[in-house]
Amino acid sequence: MTPNHFTFQPATIANAATLAALHTSVANRLTEQHGQGPWSLKISEKTMLNAMRVSEVFIAKLDYELVGTLRLTTKKPWAIDTSHFSAASNPLYLLAMAIAPAHQRHGLGKQCIEEAKRIARAWPADAIRLDAYDAQAGAGDFYTRCGFTERGRNTYRGAPLIYYEFILK
Questions:
Q1: How far apart are CA 130 and CA 148, in angstroms?
Q2: Among 6, 26, 87, 131, which residue is least crowded by beta carbons within 10 Å?
Q3: Strands of 159-167's sheet in order across
């Protein structure tokens, strides 16, 4: 059997509907596993198109199948309190990372994080910051395994969050 070929590239407008479906499938899986929560939000194609206007959206493919995504932006997201982070001149914020449920726990998320680090170094950025839900549905342990450091905790609009950062060298 031939191994799948992993690619990571910028998303295009043509990917918006597929990305919306991917985010919704991940939200549905988390809701099935952990119950209703802020992770249960359904994403529309219009929402994805807006995300593409205000940030850099990337897609991960195995062969020709879109199986993952993440966003990078220099604009601080509303839910992040920067007082918890190390000083950084040019931080990037990693948002909305998602791996298709059928492809989770096979190393694709880690590959996406490594690509995000590579892109951030070339940006050039000096840190990657993110938040994860402080709940069973959150991905905090994953980010720790990928080399991120917990920087603090906060609650935003009732959602408990953990802040993580990765300092680029």
A1: 9
A2: 87
A3: 6-10, 56-62, 65-73, 91-99, 127-133, 159-167, 149-156
Q: How confident is the model at residue 30 (pLDDT cuts 50, 70, 90)?
A: very high
Class of domain 6-167: alpha beta
Query: In the chain, where are the structural domains located?
Result: 6-167
Confidence category of residue 23, pLDDT binned at 50, 70, 90: very high
Residue 95: C-alpha distances to residues 1, 5, 56, 147 (Å): 34, 24, 10, 17
As a whole number, mean pLDDT of residues 31-58 equals 95
Closest CA to 97 of 144, 44, 59: 59
Residue 62 has pLDDT above 60, yes or no: yes
- Please name which of 86, 78, 88 lies closest in space to residue 131, comparing C-alpha atoms: 78
Question: Which two tokens mark 97?
Answer: 């990372």
Report yes or no: 60 and 19 within 8 Å, Cβ to Cβ. no
Give helix then strand counts, H and E, for the chain.
Answer: 4, 7
